[in-house]
Design brief:
Strand order of the largest sheet: 1-4-5-6-7-8-9-10
Order of helices and strands: EEEEEEEHEEE
Strand content: over 45%
Structural class: mainly beta
Distance between the termini: 16 Å
Length: 191
Amino acid sequence: KVPTESNSGPPIHLSATFGFLQTQSRFDGQSGTYWNLGDALAYRATLDVGLRAGAIGVTAGMASVPLRRTGGTALPGSSGDIQLRQFLGTFRTVEAQGFHQIVEVSMGLAQWAGYSGNDVLSLEDEKTRNAFALVVGYGFGFSIGQRGALTLVQDYSTLWGSGEGLPSRQSRMVRQYTTRVGLRYRIRGQR
């Protein structure tokens, strides 16, 4: 059989997922305020290239997280939303036909940015907060036809932010849990 252009080369997949994000609250040393973070709906897209041992790719995610700021420069009754953005390199285990397990490991940049709410922020408070993110996911997938798969994955994330201005008892680390469902589609190549 002579390979055609559509199925020659390594498989390339595009995935789109959404899920329920739970995150720990955090102390923001740069503003001296405590961030009480709520639960949010998170969106994520991944483009990856298949290898013999799995797939490697890039992932972008976003969630608009409810935020109440207390202490420091925060106004009493402060409330709003802040965006959590993630830009990650991802490794994923081999995808099999039918029902299969999924293991993903991702790492990269997480950002808290784009606050909108009733609190007036100084220029310093408006600055993006960057963190290193490590995400480990485990779940299941089920193939749909020759190119698609439905997925259900539970992510465990740890974000390490800046230690600037943190009191001695406060941690730079924030843990997050996301349960997400999605669709994975093979653009080209063989499974």
